Prior knowledge:
Keywords: Membrane, Transmembrane, Transmembrane helix. The chain is mostly helical. It contains 2 helices and no strands.
Amino acid sequence: MNEKKILLNENALLSRYKSLRNKADRFFHFFFLFFFSKLFVIFVRGKLHVENERHVRLQSRMKTLDSGIKNLPSSAERTSSRLGK
């Protein structure tokens, strides 16, 4: 009789342990999925931000180059300035 009670008690403890273990596993799976998804989003946003900054810098360089090219003297003006006229 005592052995049956011990076995039932062990089975109850084992099933309780398994239940708690499943809950903990589900919690940690959810936590890690949430954490790594947030980390991934932060990483992607950072990459996009850096790419956007590069694009803006490149556009501003191109604008300054364009304005510099427009402000260059023509070949006739360069020749006359070299000749001192």
